[in-house]
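This follows on from our talk about sequence and fold. Please put the record directly below this note.
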Amino acid sequence: MWNAVIVDRDYGSVSLENQNYIKKQYFQNGINLRLEHYNTSEEIINGCQDADVILGTGNPPITKDVIENLPKLKLVQRFGIGVNSIDLETATKKGVIVQFMPGFCIKELSIHAAALILNLIRNVGFYDRGIRKGEWRKAAGYVPRNLEEMTVGIFGFGASGRLLYQIFKKGFGSKVIVCDPFIDKSIQNSMDVTVVSFEEMLKNSDIISIHAPLTPETRHIFDYKAFKQMKNTSMIINVSRGGLINQQDLEKALADGEIRYAGLDVFEKEPLSPNSPLISNENVALTCHSAFYGENAQKNQIKLAIELVDCVLNKKSVKRKYVANKDVLNKFEDLNIIK
């Protein structure tokens, strides 16, 4: 019997009901799954000495120390896309496969980004808050602009960025520009995408939507210097990772009038502090790291969590698409690698 542990049971992105369903399916596959919640790397080390697999529903600290001090560890499985809390270099050195789930919530992310944009442009949240306070804010707030006359900048042109491109270019008739130094040339040509530099995107966009991963290169790429280059009527949307934006700089940029709007699903520290000035700002729309949430995404998440782990442990195969540290595959001679 293999041993597996979900180390952040209470994170909130996967319900306890679904975790228990996965547990039952694992048992049928010869895997004993424990549902635990550890807050530190030390707790993970102490609680997972027998673990062949560690699963993270959120971003647990799978650090160098964790990987080096779990003697049986073969696999780390994320329930989502980001792997910024996992030491991929150490995992690769130790022959530990790290799997994630790219593409499991493409539509949800794109639709959520669009919802935040429309909310802010049409003053939906502003009117809603007013009515709840007993204020009839009829035709108040900033005059909504026509999306056909606006330029949408997309930072990161992965699957969710590409779908947002279709929504605004084809659906609303907006001009859409893209900043992504790693864009696939075949996709660029087939979709007739206008690719610009980071500075050009900042200068020319009325709306910027972030769809890039958090890496050392992208951390705090949206800082006060970047916001000063944006239009003072512009909007920033983030459904990716909180660390791409320097949150203090964003708060200052909004207060100073460097930009006008922000729609945020993710934050540098979660949950967001109740004392954050973002909460009282009428030009900010906030959601609680739930852009991934949806019926189809949930089904994809559960299906992948069951299949991917079973493949590695019992079928000695791995789907390359879902491996975050692909160099680790060079260490295995008897593993069937599926493209």
Q: What stands out?
A: The radius of gyration is 22 Å. The longest helix spans residues 295-314. The mean pLDDT is 97.
